[in-house]
Amino acid sequence: MRIGLLGTGPWARMVHAPVLQAHDALDFAGVWGRRPEAAKELADRHGSRPYDDVDALLADVDAVAVALPPDVQAQLAVRAAGAGCHLLLDKPVATTTAGARAVVRAVREARVASVVFFTTRFMPEAGGWIAEQADTAGWFTGHAQWLGDVFHGESGHPFATPWRGEKGALWDVGPHALSVLLPVLGEVRRVTAAAHGPGDTVHMVLDHVTGASSTLTLSLTAPPAATDASVELRGASGVTRLPRSDTDAAAALTRAADALLAAARDGRPHPCDAAFGLRVTEILADAQALLTAAAR
């Protein structure tokens, strides 16, 4: 499969480009970025071709991997699907429900495959645990916390990007937490509450159709010593926690690329497709509306 990369930022440089180059079943055909000089540098480093015109790249490939801010991603994903390209997207798909719905509509109309890279879902240890808990009945409650220090002090973190600074933890790490909770506790009936904490910290309470409830604590401004990513479930069978994983982001993205190849080959939607990405966006948008209303 000939695949192009849209984006030249830290995630594209550190993870996407090396993975696309190394994957045996992919031909890393080209790079487009909003800064042509960055696209050339990244393409040259990985033996690919820089493109100044995104539509020219879309015409030359079978699929695209996207490493761009979410709302830029959504616009280009619609164009890519319209050009017949399968989509390896980043989370969140968009930061508006309209943007995410447009992506889903384009994917369906073009009949292309889509996979959203919810990192934890593509780690074998986590994936196995999620599947096991999804088959276990009687969950009472769950708690997820994703605490990072991207914007703590003057850390100079590579992911302290403008869109994360604007949208905060709700939109950056909220998708990770939801990608674990939803397949286990079921569809969210209602975002019961959302409140701000220190910095960009957000607390959420969710009501699931299964009768379970869950809470999320999300932050990109936690003190370095307090950073963590964890999920705990409590129910009739006891207490269980998301296992720690030795899988790095590159290995997880390789598995996501494998999933896209499989979905493109057999036509069966992946559980982490654009439609699932839309549902995550809808839940986050509901939480954002509660936060905005409370701030008035």
UniProtKB/TrEMBL annotation:
<dbReference type="Pfam" id="PF22725">
    <property type="entry name" value="GFO_IDH_MocA_C3"/>
</dbReference>
<dbReference type="InterPro" id="IPR036291">
    <property type="entry name" value="NAD(P)-bd_dom_sf"/>
</dbReference>
<dbReference type="InterPro" id="IPR055170">
    <property type="entry name" value="GFO_IDH_MocA-like_dom"/>
</dbReference>
<feature type="domain" description="GFO/IDH/MocA-like oxidoreductase">
    <location>
        <begin position="154"/>
        <end position="238"/>
    </location>
</feature>
<dbReference type="InterPro" id="IPR050463">
    <property type="entry name" value="Gfo/Idh/MocA_oxidrdct_glycsds"/>
</dbReference>
<dbReference type="InterPro" id="IPR000683">
    <property type="entry name" value="Gfo/Idh/MocA-like_OxRdtase_N"/>
</dbReference>
<feature type="domain" description="Gfo/Idh/MocA-like oxidoreductase N-terminal">
    <location>
        <begin position="1"/>
        <end position="114"/>
    </location>
</feature>
<dbReference type="Pfam" id="PF01408">
    <property type="entry name" value="GFO_IDH_MocA"/>
</dbReference>
<protein>
    <submittedName>
        <fullName>Gfo/Idh/MocA family oxidoreductase</fullName>
    </submittedName>
</protein>
<keyword id="KW-0560">Oxidoreductase</keyword>
